[in-house]
Write a structure and sequence with these properties.
elongated, 61% helix, alpha+beta, 7 helices, 201 residues, Alpha-Beta Plaits, 2 domains
């Protein structure tokens, strides 16, 4: 039995298929974790980033150690590079799906933004508005803080209000959660008082 196992481990299937596949998958996992770790660091998530970094390096060591044992295996090099490229892509997809943290949307519009501000505040977003002067006259500058998962909804509301409004989206490292949660509680309280709003009635 041991002889059969040794022959299988030294076969071309293991050398040029299974081993490169292992390295490819390991690289996808560790690069994806690396992408998430960087995001966690930029978001100030100190408790999560080191843990992710631990598993990232552990998996990388497993992959690189296998390559060092088969330096003459060209398939391992190809699998390593392909896993790195694929890992970046997978990491970006994961980050997009997780939508971690908050972002600030800055809106500049010449149109009266009273209705837009009222609507966004009713939905629980942190909104601050100031009057300013642009190249063509008076404008309103609106600052909106929202979770990343809600950004597209806010942008849809802005475009519905004024398709010609100028807006920028910026990442935020830290947000006072107490203020944001207070807005959420206000929105939930309004929904309980008038649940028909949920269905737009």
């Amino acid at each position: 039995m041991s002889v059969i196992i040794m022959e299988f481990l030294s076969s071309e299937i293991v050398t040029y298929v299974m081993l490169p596949l292992f390295i490819f998958v390991a690289r996808i996992i560790d690069v994806s974790l690396g992408t998430l770790r960087i995001i966690f660091v930029t978001k100030g998530m100190r408790s999560v980033a080191p843990l992710v970094g631990f598993f990232e390096v552990l998996i990388w060591l497993l992959a690189i150690s296998r390559i060092m044992q088969d330096l003459d295996n060209w398939a391992c090099y190809v699998a390593y590079a392909a896993g790195f490229a694929s890992g970046n892509f997978v990491g970006m997809l994961l980050e997009e799906k997780l939508a971690i943290g908050h972002e600030m949307i800055r809106v500049i519009t010449r149109k009266d933004a009273t209705n837009l501000i009222a609507e966004l505040r009713a939905k629980g977003y942190g909104v601050t508005s100031v009057k300013a002067e642009g190249i063509e006259g008076d404008v309103a500058v609106i600052y909106i803080i929202a979770r990343r998962s809600m950004i597209q909804t806010v942008l849809d509301d802005i475009n519905t209000f004024n398709p010609r409004a100028l807006y920028t989206v910026e990442s935020i490292k830290y947000v006072n959660k107490e203020i944001f949660h207070r807005s959420e509680e206000e929105r939930q309280r309004n929904w309980l008082i008038n649940p028909r709003r949920k269905n737009g009635k």
